[in-house]
Specification:
CATH superfamily: GAF domain
CATH class: Alpha Beta
Strand content: 25-35%
Bound molecules: methionine sulfoxide
Radius of gyration: 14 Å
Helix content: 25-40%
Number of domains: 1
Shape: globular
């Protein structure tokens, strides 16, 4: 059994350090990328408060394709360069969006989403996936969240 509950007032640095450690432990020795992404989405969901969606889009044949996630059903395919996820994948840069309604081309999958954090997962110099977090709170994500999810992405890049 895996039980990773965290008090709401846990400092971000500690929260994300523990998330990366748990992610490492949970995916170690498992070669199935889908199983690992499914567990990682569940881990993010348990560690990071105030989310309405958490999961993966994978780069497949030059577009993003929905991967394992927690949340409402989402759009399946996103062209590179479109929306917040496609922008992160095309540029290789984290997208920290305080207000999704102000982001040109934002793709609304869940009308509850108000802010979003998308972090590219890079393997051998290529973006192979993005980790996407949505929140129903405006400006939910800060630099500490971006750094934490970037550290997670680096840790699991060879396991998905
Ligand atoms: N909002 C994203 C689409 C994915 S959903 O948030 C799950 C975007 O603009 O790329």
């Amino acid at each position: 059994m895996f039980d990773f509950s965290f008090p709401a007032d846990t400092p971000d640095e500690e929260r994300y350090r523990e998330l990366a450690n748990a992610a490492d432990a949970l995916t170690e020795g498992e070669a199935d990328g889908v199983a690992n992404m499914a567990n990682l989405a569940a881990l993010i969901w348990s560690f990071v408060p105030d989310l309405n969606w958490a999961g993966f889009y994978r780069v497949v044949d030059a577009e993003l394709v929905l991967g394992p996630f927690i949340g409402r059903p989402a759009c399946i395919r996103i062209p590179l360069g479109q929306g917040v996820c496609g922008t992160a994948a095309a540029t290789g840069e984290t997208q920290l969006v305080a207000d999704v309604h102000a982001f040109p081309g934002h793709i609304a999958c869940d009308s509850a989403s108000e802010s979003e954090l998308v972090v590219p997962v890079v393997r051998d110099g290529m973006v192979v996936a993005v980790i996407d977090l949505d929140s129903p709170r405006k400006a939910r994500f800060k630099e500490a969240d971006a750094k934490g999810i970037e550290a997670l992405a680096a840790r699991i890049a060879t396991r998905i």
